Amino acid sequence: MMNRIFPHLFLCFGLALAGCTPAVSERTAASAPKELRVDFVKLRHIAAFGPGKTDLAGEEVHKLDTFLDASDIGPDDHVYLQPAAEDHLTAARIGRLSKEMGRRGIGAQTLPEGAAPADSIAVIVERYVITPPDCPNWTSPTYGDHGNAEHTNLGCANATNLGLMIADPRDLVIGRKLGPVEGDAALASVRRYQAGQLKGLGGSSSGGGASASAASSGGGGGGQ
């Protein structure tokens, strides 16, 4: 009789433990890090000129303004002008476009001749865009987690705040090169150290330290 009861008891005990353990997919989703997604975005507009003309044709000025407004160009965006191949009016046309964009405070760099259609110049805007994680995420309960898994909302606030605070999303992907620095002050301290010309701490001098040391030695001798 007992031989038949024990297997059933162990089976029930195992099923109970399995019911208390969260599913593998649930634990995986809960422990997934909340990360920002940074995408490279390129916006392109074709500014058309009339054949043999250096002024924007027809409604092209309005179309350019609409594109620039929709692009919402910021100080960290990169703007380029790419002329068509074998266009002998490239310099004049780029000057015309630069003037139109300059009145809006937008500067642009010139790219080598590319795949722009004839009698046109491509206006290209490049930027990095941040997509925050899907937060908040309260899909897992805040209590009764016997598997001790990370909560689905863990890290949401940190990732979202970083995405809101970052000035240039490109820094999260590439970073910036350090500029030139002035190292004279650091070099001078090394030279003083090598020459034995050490400076005392602020508010004190090496002479004062020596006097204090001598006084301490004298006081000790008087006590003997």
Low-confidence stretches: 21-30, 207-224
Fraction of residues in H or I helices: 40-55%
Report the sheet-strand fraction: 5-15%
Order of helices and strands: HHEHEHEEHHH
Overall pLDDT score = 78
By DSSP, the count of extended strands is 4
In CATH, the topology of the domain at 39-129 is named 60s Ribosomal Protein L30, Chain: A
Q: CATH H level of the domain at 39-129: which superfamily?
A: OmpA-like domain
How many helical stretches? 7
Radius of gyration: 35 Å
Structural class: alpha+beta
Q: How far apart are the first and last residues' alpha carbons, in Å?
A: 96 Å
Shape descriptor: flat
Cross-sheet strand order for the largest sheet: 1-4-2-3
**Major beta sheet, specifics?**
4 strands, mixed
Question: What is the CATH architecture assignment of the domain at 39-129?
Answer: 2-Layer Sandwich
The CATH first-level class of the domain at 39-129 comes to Alpha Beta
